[in-house]
Amino acid sequence: MKKDRFVHMIKHRFFLRFHMALILIATGLSGLAVSKLLLLVDLDNIVIRYPLAVLLSYGMFFLFIKLWLVYLRSTALERIGKLVDTAGDVIPDVPDVIGNAAARAGEVFRGAGGGSGGGGASGLFSASTAEAAFQCVLAGSLLKSARRMDAPDWIGGVFRATWIPLAVVLGITWIGAAVIHAYYPNLVKISDILSSGR
Question: Is residue 114 part of a domain?
């Protein structure tokens, strides 16, 4: 299965935008939770606490991506199991046909293609047999794709795709915290500005 087809399958089989929205919401909430935990351990300086919360929530983002990949893999493996079961239901007699043909090696085989020494065996392969063969091939390619999800370089791929947004968010967070800290040096939370009406 080529990468384009695999990406197309992921986009259409799974609610990709919904899953990514959940991952981003969970990442944002983990950033808030980390900031709150850092505040509880008396890290009051927002210039340090906010960028640290961004970095730690970025680490949580990787955890959420890994959980998503595990979900995709388990769903793919479940689908593979269903495909293999379906293929077994569609072509249950193939071993018997092969066994009987081997036992009657001297006989002339008669299929829908006509009588010959075996060249006209097209009668054996119905549409359901072809479908089962396709499903077996599809199951094998899904299994390979599912195994690649456990490749050690998935972290590098995610990092390469997200380091620029991380740098932008981290930069904005640090600059914003530094500016707020310059105007309000004793400020512990941004919500204090909003609640006091300063």
Answer: no
